């Protein structure tokens, strides 16, 4: 954790009672803002909290999918906690979403994505990571609009899983939706990061503070 950081949950003190999306205020248990190391080089971005994350108020925990990601974080040295921890001890990574409030029956609408975008934008500006991991197709398309020159519809999370996409200011490491991943898919993603990211100098020249 960054030396100046008090805790992992919502470290930028974003509004935990946000009412910008009226339909989601009625269905959510928590507003699940970002969680992790504010000095992270790797930021993971999902579409929206699942039931486990909504209940815990922490991204990517409390469900089979969450445990899959937490296990991958452990394999990469980003987590020092067991995969079923609901408040994982993370380093060099930050977990967040396109939208932070859950509807149990549907994906977020375009308007809800637009309402919530300033939170993600602020997190990315403040963290200034080297690598962004879009988890799933919707996150991949949303981040491709911002950070690559390719047409968002040209991206396919299944085809781009476990690859590196060069972008403007950041590199993207796309990942298939956690619930669609087999163990072999998860292993391939971890192997890609280990061999092709950790194995080279991935830090770009953007005036980072030393860690
Ligand atoms: S999804 Fe985002 S913008 Fe909408 S109510 Fe939740 S925190 Fe606010």
List keywords for this structure.
211 residues; alpha/beta; Uracil-DNA Glycosylase, subunit E; six-stranded mixed beta sheet; 6 strands; globular; binds iron/sulfur cluster
Describe the fold and architecture.
A hairpin with a 4-residue loop joins strand 5 and strand 6. The protein has 7 helices and 6 strands. 34% of the residues lie in helices and 9% in strands. The radius of gyration is 16 Å and the shape is globular. By secondary structure, the chain is α/β, with parallel strands linked by helices. The chain has a 6-stranded mixed beta sheet with strand order 1-3-2-4-6-5. The longest helix has 18 residues, at 110-127. It has helices at 22-27, 51-56, 64-75, 110-127, 137-147, 157-160, 183-197, and strands at 35-36, 42-46, 93-97, 131-134, 165-166, 171-172. It has a single domain (23-197), classed as Uracil-DNA Glycosylase, subunit E (3-Layer(aba) Sandwich), CATH 3.40.470.
Topology:
Layout: H1 22-27, E1 35-36, E2 42-46, H2 51-56, H3 64-75, E3 93-97, H4 110-127, E4 131-134, H5 137-147, H6 157-160, E5 165-166, E6 171-172, H7 183-197
């Amino acid at each position: 954790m960054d030396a100046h950081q008090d805790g992992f949950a919502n470290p930028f003190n974003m509004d935990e009672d946000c009412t910008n999306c009226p339909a989601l205020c009625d269905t959510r248990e928590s507003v699940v803002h970002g969680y992790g190391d504010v000095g992270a080089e790797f930021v993971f971005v999902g579409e929206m909290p699942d039931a486990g994350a909504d209940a815990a108020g922490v991204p990517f925990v409390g469900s089979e999918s969450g445990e899959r990601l937490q296990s991958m974080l452990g394999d990469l040295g980003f987590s020092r906690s067991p995969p079923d921890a609901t408040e994982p001890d993370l380093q060099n990574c930050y977990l967040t979403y396109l939208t932070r409030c859950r509807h149990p029956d549907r994906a977020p609408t375009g308007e809800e994505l637009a309402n919530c975008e300033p939170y993600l934008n602020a997190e990315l500006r403040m963290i200034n990571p080297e690598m962004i991991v879009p988890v799933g197709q919707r996150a991949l398309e949303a981040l491709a609009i911002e950070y690559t020159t390719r047409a968002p519809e040209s991206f396919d999370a299944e085809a781009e899983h476990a690859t590196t996409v060069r972008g403007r200011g950041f590199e993207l490491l796309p990942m298939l939706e956690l619930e669609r991943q087999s163990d072999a898919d998860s292993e391939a993603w971890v192997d890609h990061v280990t061999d092709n990211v950790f194995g080279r100098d991935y830090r770009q020249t953007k005036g980072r503070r030393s860690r």
